[in-house]
Amino acid sequence: MKVIIDGITIDVEPGTSILNAARMIGGEIVPPAMCYYSKLEGSGGKCRTCLVKVSKGSEKDPRPMPKLVASCRTTVMDGMEVQNITSPEVKEARKGVVEMLLINHPLDCPVCDQAGECHLQDLSYEHGSEATRYEFERRTFDRIDIGDKIQLHMTRCILCYRCVYVADQLTEKREHGILGRGDASEISTYIEKAIDNDFSGNVIDVCPVGALTDKTFRFKQRVWFSKPVDAHRDCPTCTGKVALWYKGEDVIRVTGRKDVYGEVEDFICNTCRFEKKNTSDWVIEGPRQISNRSVISSNHYEQLAPPPVVRKNLALQAANKEEFERATKH
Amino acid sequence: MGRKLLLEHINVPGINTFDVYRQNGGYRALEKALKTMSSDDIVEEVKKSGLRGRGGAGFPTGMKWSFLAKPEGKARYLVCNADESEPGTFKDRYLMTYIPHLLVEGMIVSSFALGANTSYIYVRGEMMPQIRILEKAIAEAKAAGFLGKNILGSGFDHEVYVQPGGGAYICGEETALIESLEGKRGNPRIKPPFPAISGLYNCPTVVNNVETIAAVVPIVNDSGDEYAKLGIGRSTGTKLISASGNLNKPGVYEIELGVSVEEFIYSDEYCGGIANGKRLKAVVAGGSSVPILPANLILKTANGENRLMTYESLAEGGFATGTMLGSGGFVAFDEDQCIVRNTWNFSRFYHHESCGQCSPCREGTGWMEKVLHRLEYGHGKLSDIDLLVDVSKKIEGNTICPLGDAAAWPVASAIRHFRDEFEWHVTNPKEAMERNFGLAHYADPLPKPEPELSQN
């Protein structure tokens, strides 16, 4: 099936969503997604940041779709034409959604553990406006401990429902969901019961903001000062493929391996995540590749290479062809 | 006197009981349908009748029925949406209270047409008396052999169940209703798939409004062609209008579509004019979610034609100078009513009823409510008015279900038509707390709206 996204044609399997087709192309035309998580069935459609304009429905029925559609939950049709960053309407709508997501967000990035790997931070940096028009008190909640390892700070939550899907799909019991309605809804475990399951820690990894944090890591280190390393161990419960985050010689945090869209490759178990914090528990594979656009990489593995001057100048690129290709590989 | 189809026998004493309903020609449609018609015949009649969904969207019912997927070995369901909770609309409650057998008969006939062996009436939780009335009516129908196995020897089995909801406005959205009926949280589903393909318990489902299902009874009785003779153009048949506000005779009226708005408000047959001899200021013509219109625009369109009570005429002029028939919640405001306060009140409702699933609606409804509260209580700024318009635009069309649109339209239209009143609230906060703005000096008739720039 052929689909054209922002003028770029790609062949995809039937049943692929517009978002996934855009991810196959990659680059700037990929719509941001705060609630969609490819490994969680039924996720997506809620945050509305991935809205795109379908300017041609399909080859058979070329009418455009009347409204902007959520690209994560709309499947492509043969000959469909999609506008993302080329449509001013989409950009405007996205800016509106980002504003809506931020009006009740505490913006406490300076004390938030997620800062540096927070999707809302990236999103507002790229699509938001610099000042808010909201002049009312922001909604706040008390912090809740979900078990002894996870803390829920509802104030920061953007209600993407990802953790609800994790609780539904990875754990055996439904013990984690949404209470309340409208802007009073909150993520909660029923009567603050602790989540007790081997895979419950994955709610931390899927959370796009700092609402669910690892209590064994809270306030230990800013994420961009820690050094991520790929490692694995022979784990009876999960695949054991993780990323270790070092502060000097110490492992201060264990997470799943997240790709460029913030999705983990494999869900890991709580033993790997919370218990195994010695280098001797792990087989080290090597430094983790982090995109050089991420703040996490700014201090160590990759520099901002090649320098911007080279990026803009074709003559310099031709002269340094080999170095340029190596540097832009990821 | 306009012709009545649904409320023909409403004044017969005891029409809510089976015996009296039967004596007045009740369950005639059921006998006719089951004995002489095939299910396709009924769908064809409904198509011919031009009946459009009475819940608000006005989608042709016959077409909706023909979209129903019919896979082998899968049950099909008919669900009646009796979660009527739009502010200003109370026609379904009236129908269910006083003539419940009409709905039950309609449910059985429609289910037969769709091939559904089980159907549900999802009633809003606050309507406890209506739930008991319907259950009594169903029991009576069952005792008479109109429900159960092999009805009237036709081989058609059917059961109707009444399911009380929890009282959420959002559960009136068909997919949220289905979720709620399945026992889950009433969040609207993301479409597609549409309920006609995968609805209740992942089976093909049709969700229809109470009035729509009731209207199937006269269509089967008198034939679709006969029904289509009533009304004008694509707005056929009769419609229940819940008239409320500052009217001499508020209440539920059955009108033939095509009555002029002026006649509906001022004639003695219907609302009998504005109460206490006051002047009309504005009208919300189809329930709280449709755009509000000032008196001059509700009586005459921008082109100077008489506005009629039809889907098309009320929508004449688009959102710039028109509104919608919606669910028929007709609310009239006299000169002493405050539009800002009313808009705030509507906003408060949508803020409270937003399900919180998608971000623009969850956050935007609350934001609009807070700004409107500030305007109403004299702390507003002039920039707030443009802010409201902008926020409503950011919500409209960007949400999963139409609740976002429903929350945005009243605000946007109130500001469009009553901007001077909003500005007056900002410039004269003290006075605004003490008295109302009254009628504004609108240009009458309004100049023709400029054609909207075509979107690329």
TrEMBL record, chain A:
<dbReference type="InterPro" id="IPR036010">
    <property type="entry name" value="2Fe-2S_ferredoxin-like_sf"/>
</dbReference>
<keyword id="KW-0411">Iron-sulfur</keyword>
<dbReference type="Pfam" id="PF13510">
    <property type="entry name" value="Fer2_4"/>
</dbReference>
<dbReference type="InterPro" id="IPR019574">
    <property type="entry name" value="NADH_UbQ_OxRdtase_Gsu_4Fe4S-bd"/>
</dbReference>
<dbReference type="Pfam" id="PF22117">
    <property type="entry name" value="Fer4_Nqo3"/>
</dbReference>
<feature type="domain" description="4Fe-4S His(Cys)3-ligated-type">
    <location>
        <begin position="89"/>
        <end position="128"/>
    </location>
</feature>
<keyword id="KW-0004">4Fe-4S</keyword>
<dbReference type="InterPro" id="IPR050123">
    <property type="entry name" value="Prok_molybdopt-oxidoreductase"/>
</dbReference>
<dbReference type="InterPro" id="IPR001041">
    <property type="entry name" value="2Fe-2S_ferredoxin-type"/>
</dbReference>
<feature type="domain" description="2Fe-2S ferredoxin-type">
    <location>
        <begin position="1"/>
        <end position="88"/>
    </location>
</feature>
<keyword id="KW-0479">Metal-binding</keyword>
<dbReference type="InterPro" id="IPR054351">
    <property type="entry name" value="NADH_UbQ_OxRdtase_ferredoxin"/>
</dbReference>
<protein>
    <submittedName>
        <fullName>2Fe-2S iron-sulfur cluster-binding protein</fullName>
    </submittedName>
</protein>
<keyword id="KW-0408">Iron</keyword>
<dbReference type="Pfam" id="PF10588">
    <property type="entry name" value="NADH-G_4Fe-4S_3"/>
</dbReference>
From TrEMBL, chain B:
<keyword id="KW-0411">Iron-sulfur</keyword>
<keyword id="KW-0560">Oxidoreductase</keyword>
<dbReference type="Pfam" id="PF10589">
    <property type="entry name" value="NADH_4Fe-4S"/>
</dbReference>
<dbReference type="Pfam" id="PF01512">
    <property type="entry name" value="Complex1_51K"/>
</dbReference>
<dbReference type="InterPro" id="IPR019575">
    <property type="entry name" value="Nuop51_4Fe4S-bd"/>
</dbReference>
<dbReference type="InterPro" id="IPR037225">
    <property type="entry name" value="Nuo51_FMN-bd_sf"/>
</dbReference>
<dbReference type="InterPro" id="IPR037207">
    <property type="entry name" value="Nuop51_4Fe4S-bd_sf"/>
</dbReference>
<dbReference type="InterPro" id="IPR001949">
    <property type="entry name" value="NADH-UbQ_OxRdtase_51kDa_CS"/>
</dbReference>
<dbReference type="GO" id="GO:0050136">
    <property type="term" value="F:NADH dehydrogenase (quinone) (non-electrogenic) activity"/>
</dbReference>
<keyword id="KW-0520">NAD</keyword>
<protein>
    <recommendedName>
        <fullName>NADH-quinone oxidoreductase subunit F</fullName>
        <ecNumber>7.1.1.-</ecNumber>
    </recommendedName>
</protein>
<dbReference type="InterPro" id="IPR011537">
    <property type="entry name" value="NADH-UbQ_OxRdtase_suF"/>
</dbReference>
<keyword id="KW-0874">Quinone</keyword>
<keyword id="KW-0479">Metal-binding</keyword>
<feature type="domain" description="NADH-ubiquinone oxidoreductase 51kDa subunit iron-sulphur binding">
    <location>
        <begin position="340"/>
        <end position="385"/>
    </location>
</feature>
<keyword id="KW-1278">Translocase</keyword>
<keyword id="KW-0004">4Fe-4S</keyword>
<keyword id="KW-0285">Flavoprotein</keyword>
<keyword id="KW-0408">Iron</keyword>
<comment type="similarity">
    <text>Belongs to the complex I 51 kDa subunit family.</text>
</comment>
<comment type="function">
    <text>NDH-1 shuttles electrons from NADH, via FMN and iron-sulfur (Fe-S) centers, to quinones in the respiratory chain.</text>
</comment>
<keyword id="KW-0288">FMN</keyword>
